[in-house]
Design a protein that fits this description.
Elements: H1 2-19, H2 30-33, E1 39-43, H3 51-54, E2 65-67, H4 73-79, H5 102-105, E3 112-115
Length: 121
């Protein structure tokens, strides 16, 4: 048991030492998190552009909504006032049918493209 603990501590020390000096890129959105990037989102199928085109530098997400990242699709749709706040009262109650339930509408309903551009130092 002592050998296991020593090995675990040695592994942690190596991992911590190797993390020093690394540069990290923050991909947090300006909206919602105060980050440095502007993210956009659009429901899959609402664009004629291909995934390859969307992924290319310089692609213009015209008509796309600004998005919060990291966050869920529903978080963004609530922020955009598409749906009401699910944690208020009984807004999210299935019988009220105010927010589409993924079990009824299918996963494609909540499948979106998220896009931004950033530099890798």
């Amino acid at each position: 048991m002592k050998r296991f603990i020593f090995t675990l501590l040695a592994l942690l020390a190596v991992l911590c030492a190797s993390a020093e000096g690394r540069e990290y890129i923050s991909l947090d959105s300006r909206l919602g998190h105060g980050g440095g990037l502007t993210w956009h989102m659009l429901r899959d199928g609402e664009t004629k552009a291909t995934g390859r085109e969307i992924s290319m530098p310089g692609f213009k997400p015209e008509g796309w909504a600004e998005a919060i990242v990291p966050a869920t699709v529903l978080t963004n749709l609530v922020e955009q006032k598409v749906y009401p706040e699910p944690y208020f009262g009984q807004t999210n109650k299935l019988a009220n049918n105010l927010i589409p339930d993924i079990a009824k509408v299918g996963r494609e309903f909540y499948t979106y493209w998220f896009r931004t551009e950033f530099s890798n130092p």
